[in-house]
């Protein structure tokens, strides 16, 4: 029987964004895109098939249904028009409330039409879930970053998480998709998944994935495996390193690499060059061509 991992505490994103969603102070979401509340027919509401949250805990859904039955609907769901049919709606935020209301046999739900960046709003709503699995959180983060064209540093600024935290979460997505789907269902925590993705030996990584799915892998065991690997690598005989010489040539190549990197970051379509700029670039091209011809491809 697979080990049951403990329920996750409030996500770092939820902690960082505490109170922001009520005021809609998240920088990339605009409060002006929200309209007045209305009653939407439950049978005309549809889930968004593109949303990254794939696993909905049935027990938690039952608890939400009980809460709705006792206290009523305390917060409207967010909807956007369904392009395929007038009068139908797609959920931006609030799928669990809609599912719970459907279980209760409710005919309508209080809703707000959202006409802004619904993809970002839906992803943010997913990230605010306390029970979001580590895998679903990573997938939501990646979709949010890709959708907005952000770098990791920009994402950190926009959503209030540290860049190392975002990098750590995204890194687990390098694991096989089939394994990630199972890890999401089992709610395997990120601190168990990270040591697996860091494992460079394919056979050992496969072994760790099997142990994780069977519930045998703990954080300490995974980290011990990583430590043992690092120790064995340091014990391997190494050839003496040649003396490093910071010659003018090597420094020049470093400068060229940095120059090339900066050039790739320039907005090429809007770039206007003066005659002097063009002469400088032509001179640089001639110098690089000369270096390439002298190296004979080595």
UniProtKB/TrEMBL annotation:
One of its GO terms (biological process) is chromosome segregation. GO terms for molecular function: DNA binding. The keyword GTP-binding does not apply. The keyword Ribonucleoprotein does not apply. Pfam families: HTH_ParB, ParB_N. Residues 141-168 form the HTH cro/C1-type domain. It comes from the Bacteria. Keywords: Chromosome partition, Plasmid. Transmembrane segments: none annotated. GO terms for cellular component: chromosome. Belongs to the ParB family. This is Nucleoid occlusion protein. It comes from Komagataeibacter saccharivorans.
